[in-house]
User: Fold this.
Amino acid sequence: MQIKIPFLAEGVESGTVVSILVREGERVKKDQTILELETNKATAPIPAPASGTITKVHVKEGEEIAVGQVIMTLSESSVAGKTPTEKETRVEKAVSREKPTAYEGRVGGSDFRYESKSGLPPPASPSIRKMARDLGIDLTKVRGTERGGRITVQDLKSYLANLQAGIWRAGGRKVSAPLSIDFSKWGPINREPVSTVRRTIGQKMYEAWSTIPHVTQFDEADITSLLAFRKRYASDYERRGARLTLTGIALKAVVSVLKKHPKFNASLDELKRELICKNYYHLGVAVDTEHGLLVPVIRDVDQKNLLELSIELSELAEKTRARKISLEEVQGATFTISNLGSIGGAHFTPIINQPEVAILGLGRGSEKPVVREGKVKQGAMLPLCLSYDHRVIDGAEGARFIQDLVHAFEHFEEKNFVLDRMVKKASLRKEKQ
Assistant:
């Protein structure tokens, strides 16, 4: 049996082998983790699909591999006390030679071309051939990842994705090879490998910026009273194991505004030409890690109080920085918040996290003179940066959204901080369950 990298999640096509947890000749049980793969979203454990003995490991730690690629050969017969026959060994070696080390039929990569000594077309099912004809794809340019180079639906998807990425990079013109400049000619240098996470983040940001017409709306909210409430109740939250942060408060403020403006909680289905309006509120929170920017998701924000959100936010951020976050925990966001206030800077232009249509950036608050009721007063002003997809949202809608958001921050009620009310509501929910 060949063990291949399974489908992990939407948008995850490849990853880097972090650790190989078994050796050749070692017996494994079904569902035992045999390899850990670092993807653009999280570190994913790869389980054994059946019990048996590992007869061959086809990959190395640090190697980048694609979904569908063979990573190990498992001999199920060895479990019953049998050893692989000479014929089985020959077959395994032949299959090992056939397997691709990575998807090579990509624009800007090596120019793959299927060659057949018999003159037959590339191996593929009738349905795959029909799909390729309908899409205008030349199957001789698609590298198949199944045994014998057989082409699958996933191979077609990978080919199209890479073809489309090549067109974006080239602006519709022929893709030229990237330049490699010898910078050591001008002075000493250090070379560091770009991680899978960093490369994928860069590609996703480039695709989002190149394909989405961004508009960024700026404003400021006076959070003087909000910070006073935070200072008053922070110790109460700490006694319950929670950190009362501005990001946690922002989750509550944002979700109240999203309910008034459902377009900002939607996604655009370009193929079906439909706007998918979601009736749930799963908010992504950008977390700065040493591996790159990751966005874990807090689900059902509208159904949770400030204490619950503060605890979950802290736990999720800690898991993300330790790379213990699962793929499921970084999927399904409907809107994202990126808070740079703890680092510094004021306004910036956050890039939309596809397939969402909007993102909110928060800068560092600062003391400024503000006019209130005809008088100049000192206020703590929070920079707000709202980027949105102009194909879905017009400027007037963006202005109304950020106005309502400013109001939500400036009129954040003290009752939202009071723990007694939260504890009582939590108890009532448990009783009903």
User: Anything to note?
Assistant: The radius of gyration is 26 Å.
